[in-house]
Amino acid sequence: MIKLNREPEPQYMIDNKATWLGALKAAIANYGSYKKIPEKEKQKLISHYRNDSVRSALIKSSFGKCAFCECIPSEGGNFEIEHFKPKSIYPDLTFDWVNFLPACRKCNGSKDSHDTGAEPIINPYDIDPKYVFYFEDIVIKAVESPLKETADKTIEVCGLNTVRLWKPRAEILVSLRIFSRAIEEAIEELKNADTERKKVNRVKKLREAVETIETLTSSREKYSSFCRHFLENSEAYHKAKWLLENA
Ligand SMILES: [Zn+2]
């Protein structure tokens, strides 16, 4: 999970949300509760937000990734427009732009109708996840902080420590180890450069190795928070950065 910034609310929402909410509230009053509205009628009343302008603004804000697990949903399914506070419990927020998140089917399904009002979880638009999560090997954990309980709940509710995420993290970990070794080798070669020409070439090689590993931490890359955590804790990477700054 990485920090996300909301895109401006699509005009389509601004122009229509009051009307849609009015109709939904009338149905709730008519049937007695949101849950009692017949399914077919309910779908007709709420489906307005499933719109391309809404979907694309959300996907843009999350760099094409699931806001929770950072997978790329288009690779294995579709994006779903997730209500942070479930519409079944908070129908007034059905068309509320700040209540929307782009999520993969797995996270959305896992979160289901968890009541985030009663038991909050981390919303990456509002809280920077880098201060509340860390990784131990391929396992995501909650940092000891006032938000620990919220972070632990997020891991549980979204299923962030399940095999579907351990597998890709393990694969990336192998790549990160390979790139780290390339950096270590480049550092060693630079140390042994006995002519200016060799030094220049080896600095270049080291810079390329560092740039290669850094591409994995770009917000556009899947599971970038995992890669960022790895690099922040990589001695070889910090040593290489220091050497390049002082070369
Ligand atoms: Zn997800």
From TrEMBL:
Keywords recorded for this protein, A-Z: Coiled coil
Ranges in a coiled coil: 176-203
Domain HNH nuclease, first and last residues per copy: 53-109
InterPro entries for this protein: HNH_nuc
Protein name: HNH nuclease domain-containing protein
Bilayer-crossing regions: none
